Amino acid sequence: MPVTALRTTSTAQNGVGAFILQCKRLDFHYCDQWGSSKGMNTFLCSPLIASFAKAHPQITIHISPRPNTHPIIRGTYINGREKVICVRNLEKEQILQKVELLRDANGEKVKRVKGGRVVGSLNEGVRGVWDPFHGGNKDILGDRIVIN
After folding, report:
1. How confident is the model at residue 13, as a pLDDT?
2. Cβ atoms of residues 16 and 98 within 8 Å
3. Measured in Å, how far apart are the chain's first and last C-alpha atoms?
């Protein structure tokens, strides 16, 4: 009896097995008159923005003039958050670095990590939360306190 392989295709399961880019939209705001928007204007006229848009078709790009304001780039993410970077007086290569920074971000707030490794989990721990007032004799702050 010959052995034959089953022909099946895998189904997508909410991003399992595929990379989903977190950035869904980039907004470019600039001013035509202000000198601080000179780098943004050259960036938008250069082929850098076209090549970036072609390389990342899943990101929607909006370009709009905002008179009398400094140029900004606003990134919108799939979790609903936004990040804004002011790019006044930057050159077009520096602006491309900021665009890539927004593309690679995930939209979460920046969290300060104080030494060591911080591990987060959605599941509750098996042992529960430690409490000094439960579980027999404890030595609290150098004083012998017996809790029964």
Report:
1. 59
2. no
3. 71
pTM for the full predicted model: 0.66
Interval 38-57: pLDDT, tens: 999 999 999 999 999 999 99
Which two structure tokens, joined as six digits, stand for 71? 């140029």
Query: For 89-134, where are the alpha helices, taking DSSP H only?
Result: 92-104
CA distances from 45 to 2, 17, 50, 114, 119 (A): 63, 37, 9, 43, 44
Answer whether CATH 3.30.70.1650 is correct for domain 23-104. no
Give SS3 for 74: strand
3-state class of 61 per DSSP?
strand
Domain ranges, ordered by start, for the chain: 23-104
